[in-house]
Specification:
Elements lengths: L2 H34 L1 E2 L4 E2 L3 H10 L9 E3 L2 E5 L5 E2 L2 E9 L12 E7 L5 H9 L3 E3 L4 H8 L10 E7 H7 L1
Antiparallel strand pairs: 1-2, 3-4, 4-6, 5-6, 6-7, 7-9, 8-9
Helix pairs in contact: 1-2
Length: 171
């Protein structure tokens, strides 16, 4: 084979491999986004956060069991790089009732993200979908508070919380 043909063939193979990999990641992100999206006419989230997290498990992006459960919330640290709305997805959380432990459960989910550039898209999404944005998350303290021994790259972190209490504040 001539060098130019080999180069083009290699580039095409790499592009196809990346495209094949990007498609499942986009599907995962859509499923998680839908789990956070709010339908004001039904008063519920559009997608199912449990199923979205199970898809991340199946893809090997999070553990089969949460890294930690605190009160009513499961926390899943990402094992491999993934994006969410153009930012680095660091952790997924899901709040739900298994057993009453004496406090109020607010079902729903959230994500902690390391921001790549502007967070305007997250703020717009939060406003449209009954979510809350926690700015300037000190990720080291947050991990310590959860009892997680994990390292986090330096950067700006934000938590997007899309629970029922967040939607009620919206209405």
């Amino acid at each position: 084979m001539k060098p130019l043909v080999v180069l083009i063939s290699t580039a095409l193979s790499c592009t196809l491999a990346f495209s094949a990999q990007a498609e499942p990641m986009a599907k995962l992100e859509k499923q998680l986004t839908d789990a956070l999206r709010y339908n004001p006419s039904t008063g519920e989230r559009i997608g199912n956060s449990g199923k979205a997290i199970q898809a991340y498990m199946k893809a090997g992006l999070v553990n089969k069991k949460p890294n930690v459960r605190v009160d009513y919330t499961d926390y899943y640290l990402l094992n491999k790089p993934a994006s969410f709305m153009g930012h680095h997805l660091f952790m997924i959380e899901e709040e739900y009732l298994i057993k009453y432990i004496g406090c109020c459960v607010s079902e729903g989910a959230g994500v902690t993200l390391r921001i790549r550039a502007s967070d305007k898209n997250l703020r717009t999404f939060a406003k449209q979908n009954g979510c809350a944005v926690e700015d300037g998350v000190n990720i080291t303290e947050h991990l310590d508070d959860l009892g997680l021994k994990a390292s986090a790259p330096a950067g700006k972190y934000i938590t997007l919380s899309c629970r029922m209490r967040d939607a009620v504040r919206r209405d």
